[in-house]
Amino acid sequence: MYLILLGAPGAGKGTQAHILTSRIQIAHVSSGDLFRENIKKGTPIGIEAKGYIDRGELVPDETVIEMIMNHLNTPACRNGALLDGFPRTIFQADSLNNALHERFNKGIGRIIYVKVDTDALLQRLSGRWICPVCQTPYHELNNPPKIKGICDHDAAALYQRDDDKRSTAERRLQVYFNQTMPLIEYYKKQGLLLEINGQQSVENVTNDIIEALNVLSMDKEKKDIILGETEESLVA
Ligand code: AMP
Question: Which domains does the chain carry?
Answer without folding.
Answer: 2-126+166-226 (3.40.50.300), 127-164 (no CATH)
